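Hi team,

Below is the intake form for Flavonoid 3'-monooxygenase from Flemingia macrophylla. Please confirm the fields before the structure is written into the shared record.

FORM ID: S-0412
PROTEIN: Flavonoid 3'-monooxygenase
ORGANISM: Flemingia macrophylla
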Amino acid sequence: MSSWVIGVVTTAAAILIYRLFQLITGPSVRLPPGPSPWPIVGNLPHMGPVPHHALAALARTHGPLMHLRLGFVDVVVASSAAVAEQFLKTHDGNFSSRPPSSGAKYIAYNYRDLVFAPYGPRWRLLRKISSVNLFSAKALDHFRHVRQEEVARLTTNLAISDSKEVNLGQLLNVCTTNALARVMIGQRVFKENSGCYDPKADEFKSMVVEVMVLAGVFNIGDFVPALEWLDLQGVQSKMKKLHKRFDAFLTSIVEEHKIYKTEKHQDMLSTLLSLKEASEDGEKLTDIEIKALLLNMFTAGTDTSSSTTEWAIAELIRNPRILAQVQQELDTVVGKDRLVTEADLPHLPYLEAVVKETFRLHPSTPLSLPRVAEESCEIFGYHIPKGATLLVNVWAIARDPKEWANPLEFKPERFLSGSEKAHVDIKGNDFEVIPFGAGRRICAGMNLGLRVVQLLTATLAHAFDWELKNGLSPQNLNMDEAYGLTLQRAAPFLVHPRPRLSSHYEFMLPWPKPAEVYTFQGEQIATDRVSHLVKLPMHLAILTGNGVIKGWKLTILEIPLSSLVDKEDWTTFYKTLAFIMFGMIFFPFHTDTMDHAAMDVFFT
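The structure came back. Fields below:
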């Protein structure tokens, strides 16, 4: 029998089943209002190319609590703070699991991850492991230097781009991915130099974006099971291919870690591998669960932060007055001779307001990840059926004119002390703005995401002025959205960074500056970033990495210390030190031309 005949028979059977389903589940209860469904596909055609926009428009007609029928699945949509609070606080326990989905099945290792796992003991174990080792206050503080070093790398690459056009989104994604990778697997995964990016990073970014796009698709097979095997949209085929690519990447990381792991490793993957033996609860983790957790972190943990920072900088460029006020606050608190640190963030209330306003207008997840009703319940007098899927329109709630004055205006002042929303936080306690969700399934990485977005936004606003491609007016900047599970910009964000701090060299120094800055013939000279500092009085300046000196009288011995010195191998260190001393003897220079010199050794 040909495939088209099978398709016709299947469709006819689906119609018959749908009619029987309608008769059995007739309108005997009071469901929330909503648009009339089509046969078989229900309200799927109403979702449009950008579902959070379409659902917001439907809510203006049918109200903030809507009922839709997507295929054979009941779906309820919350589009106001009051309705969201009922679902995510009052009835949170009933809506703590995820509904079945092809994304969880084909990409997320068949629900073996943290994001899509059903609520229960296994999910609680994965949540606890992630919280303790990656997202706790102690863990965040322990790895603070990693985030600051990666932001410094980004700043350096922007500074040495010589104000050329850069794709800020690409560089931000490299930064957030490398920062997380160093915590997760103990090493950076992408390289970059001279303001350029590793081509592998572009490929990885495209994979992450594809995950988010596919995960955000309303796949017909999820809602009409009889049609799943046809894969009418080609979604399942794409998911399977993408899963193979991610699995190969993650498998290589795990296997390499098994071979080279030592007791001195302090990254999360080493901890996860140790839990393969036995956890505190006597349960073991499998390789599949470990890879599933890594997949969550490398997708949700990187793309959301970099995309939100893109939106923040775009809004600042479009609003020069606000950018100037942010820069004034940063110059007052931080000064212009060093970079921002995470320790500065609590002292920057206007910057905090800018970040809150960015999360309000551009939430990283515009539609909450779906939840499912374990039992039927009643919300505001309406019946919510058992098994119904819940969607919270985070994007619409944060633009609700009943909650926000001038909701489409980028206005950070609304969050400042004495203003209308001064009391509102974005951590799931105030339902008019919930970019990280709320309740039991609130984003596990919320505190990390906030720190990263605040540090990146502060640093980019502080260290640079910004111009758009081809002299484009800020008011003409394309702010269109590309829909996916996360909120991407529709067009690449191409900008020209113009350094505004005291010296390019300062970008290469850590916080607070442990290195000596010295002068040669009126030129300020600085070394590359330093994680350990060794000082010896000597007549030789040794610069590593991107160190630059102008002037021909100074003899420089450049040694690739990052390849010679291993912080775990002190024998190599002493050999390197001897080599340096040898260089001091045979490459002298006149001491009267230099105020001071120090040897700075950068351990990578």
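SUMMARY LINE: The CA atoms of residues 118 and 321 lie 47 Å apart.

Thanks, M.
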